[in-house]
Automatic annotation (TrEMBL):
The lineage of its organism: Bacteria, Pseudomonadati, Pseudomonadota, Gammaproteobacteria, Lysobacterales. Residues 1-27 form the signal peptide. This is DUF1579 domain-containing protein. Keywords: Signal.
């Protein structure tokens, strides 16, 4: 799901589309240690901490892997819904700035056979779902990866979710064009939980 035409790394608001092959095989083979850890951990409720409504701030690198330092800033609301009692979940992000507005979504699906999550991203401007980034959580930190193409060139994609408290989460996505030797961050998001208003 190479962030070509798809949201991911910053959705690049419709300019990037993720396209990849054998993601599951590659993701499982990148680290035997990580796979062993995942095999020992039943992570089907690892996203439970995220259910609810969040205020979101996004920083998006407009032209990744070009040397550009042109970042766009967005604000929005994220809502995460439980699906299948937590074995899957749906994230909806409505974000905007002075000149752009985007509706993004991520369907996260847990595979009980591999004990890993697949994160499927979609941009409403494209309307298609590609292959997922695959991974899981270790010590509360989620890391997901896959192989993509960007402008016809192969890249690696890394997506990291770091809960900072019960009411704050940090997200980063990075691309690598040299097989993981160096990485460039292109999507940074910070969520702050929207508290329920007391009744009465």
């Amino acid at each position: 799901m190479a962030l070509v035409n798809k949201f991911r790394a910053g959705c690049l608001l419709g300019s990037l589309i993720f396209a990849a092959g054998s993601v599951m095989v590659w993701a499982q083979s990148t680290s035997r240690a990580a796979a062993a850890t995942a095999a020992e951990h039943d992570g089907q409720h690892d996203f439970n901490f995220e259910f609810g409504t969040w205020k979101t701030h996004v920083s998006l690198l407009r032209h990744p892997l070009t040397g550009s330092k042109d970042w766009a800033e967005f604000d929005g609301i994220t809502v995460v819904h439980k699906v299948w009692n937590g074995q899957a979940n749906l994230l909806e992000l409505d974000m905007h700035n002075a000149s752009s507005h985007a509706h993004l979504a991520s369907f996260r699906l847990y595979n009980p056979a591999t004990r890993q999550w697949g994160l499927y991203f979609v941009n409403s401007r494209v309307g298609t779902i590609g292959v997922p980034t695959v991974g899981g959580f270790t010590n509360g930190r989620g890391e997901f990866s896959d192989k993509e193409t960007l402008d016809g060139k192969p890249i690696l994609v890394r997506f990291v979710i770091t809960p900072r408290s019960a009411d704050a989460i940090h997200f980063e996505q990075a691309f690598s064009a040299d097989n993981g030797k160096t990485w460039e961050t292109n999507w940074i998001a910070d969520d702050t939980r929207v508290k329920d208003r007391p009744s009465g």
